[in-house]
Structure formats: structure tokens, C-alpha cells
Write a sequence for this structure.
């Protein structure tokens, strides 16, 4: 309708969506901690001084990967803590 009246202002307005550094920085803030956790899980057996047993080392690696995955999922902190505590309880050795 506005175009029929000769009003081109809405067509020539610039798009106000966020692009550039703000959007990239937000993405990096989510991806970098996840990548650090995942890379730590992969590099853990190769670090000098790490002499944990195979089962213990795998448990730590799984915990790091789980934390990395949970850092990417947009869930509440309470739910994230519930998942991590369930993993901690499940990974304890039985007496």
C-alpha cells in the first residue's frame, strides 16, 4: 500500500539485525569453553604426569565431554547440575 502511494521509506531502510563483531563474540563465548573442555578430554592421556588408571582416566574424559556438551545446550543451570550430579553418582565405584 505504501509503495502505491510513493512511500519508499520502508524499502530503503537499513536492516537493523546484528551482524559483525557482536554476533561473532557471542558465538565465541559459547564455543571456546566447549572446545577447551573437549580438547582437554582428548589431550589428557598425553599430558606428562597423568598416571591414572584406564577406567579412572576414561571417567574423567567422559565427564569433560559431558560438561562440554552441556555448555552448548541452552538449559537452566539447575538442570545442568542435576545431570552432572547424576553422572558423578553413576561413576562412583560400588562398595
Amino acid at each position: 500500500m505504501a509503495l502505491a502511494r510513493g512511500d519508499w521509506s520502508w524499502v530503503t531502510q537499513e536492516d537493523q539485525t546484528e551482524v559483525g563483531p557482536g554476533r561473532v563474540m557471542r558465538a565465541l563465548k559459547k564455543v571456546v569453553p566447549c572446545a577447551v573442555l573437549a580438547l582437554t578430554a582428548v589431550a589428557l592421556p598425553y599430558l606428562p604426569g597423568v598416571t591414572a588408571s584406564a577406567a579412572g582416566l576414561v571417567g574423567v574424559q567422559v565427564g569433560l565431554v559431558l560438561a562440554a556438551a552441556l555448555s552448548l545446550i541452552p538449559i537452566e543451570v539447575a538442570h545442568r547440575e542435576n545431570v552432572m550430579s547424576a553422572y558423578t553418582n553413576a561413576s562412583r565405584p560400588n562398595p
About this structure: The longest helix spans residues 21-43.
